[in-house]
Amino acid sequence: MTGSFVKLIDHISMKKQFLSVIAASAVILSSCHDDHKVVPFSYPDMAEAQNPKVLFTTGDGVNVYNGGFGSAVAADPAQRDVFYLLTDRGSNVAGQVANSIIIGKPDFDPQIGKFRLTDGKLILEQTIELKNANGDKLNGLPNPVGMGASGEVPYDLNGNLLSPSADGIDSEGLVLAADGSFWVSDEYGPHIVHFDANGKTIERINPFGTGTGGRKIPAVFATRRANRGMEGLTITPDGKTLVGIMQSPMYNPSKAKVANSTVLRILTFNIATGATKQYVYLMDNTSLTGVSDITAVDATTFLTIERDGNFGGAPTNPATFKKVFKIDLSNATDISDPANGANGKLYGGKTVEELNNAADLQAAGITPVTKTQVLDLLKDLPTVYPHDKAEGLALLPGNILAISNDDDFGVIDNGKNGFAAKILPATNSVDRNRIYFVKLK
Asked: Residue 229 in 3-state DSSP?
């Protein structure tokens, strides 16, 4: 009896364990039917890049960081926690001599940082240095005349004159293509450069035909204003067309004649054929720095961000304009010039930029893209937006908008041909690269 009783107890115990395993398995299998509902991916309101390395320290003891990521942001569609952030040409300030530019680190190589969102923080996992077709590193020096020269005369921090470089790029717009390669737009040429996944140049397109591959965009884009080139770049969802936007009105035909203009150009570029179209985008007002980025919603609808140059939440002279707009190209006029003239298509003897505003455009028979505000960074975030440069946009699943900032490598102009720490007035801390995540309505 005792032996039989023990066997019975063991049998019952084993049966309970078996049923427990089945029950647990059923829960797991049930969860697997819809992973997104059981464990939804969520983004924080904000994530900051952690522990940027120091590129160099000035003679005055100012740290220049790398940092510098945030001129553009691209989301990895295969990994919802991975983001690619772009630097521009490197730390720089305006020199005291007319048209001079002080380059903090002349051998700085513009780059793409691969960041992973981990525990609400951005962790740099990989740095992709941008290189020319021969595999040599690019730099941030102005281009030579005839290849995208900006009119800037570069010097180093010791006052030594620097030579322009055909390998110079002031990278601002970023696209992650479906094959893992990158497209980057810049403020010099303006150039549109195709890089492989390791950062090596595949093609370099500009108004002059001087880049790798020799393809061109319309000649009128060579009239871009220095440091206000093709600030934003995106790609249509089918992966066939690049869409770039200029930051500010081009000096077309001259600075004086567009002083009151709010006319910006959008360029579409068919990757396979090189065919282009151009459209007018009206900036909100002439006081703004301009448009900092563009990202695709569908084949004809896009989001843009316009901003001023001031810091959010500053006790004096605070920012008043940092807004995201939805635009539609569907019914806009293609202002392309079949003759590809240096100033583009003329209307009544005037360039499109000279038409200044909506009334002048209408009189000339030009319909700009439609534009509707969808977000105000200074009013719609849960906390103050402390930065001056909201520069990158990426639209994520669930209608969530990612917005990156350019931290200028943690430095600003000290007014003496050098650098001072870039302190955010609202936080009293050095500016850092961040991504803000906002659910659009």
From this structure: coil
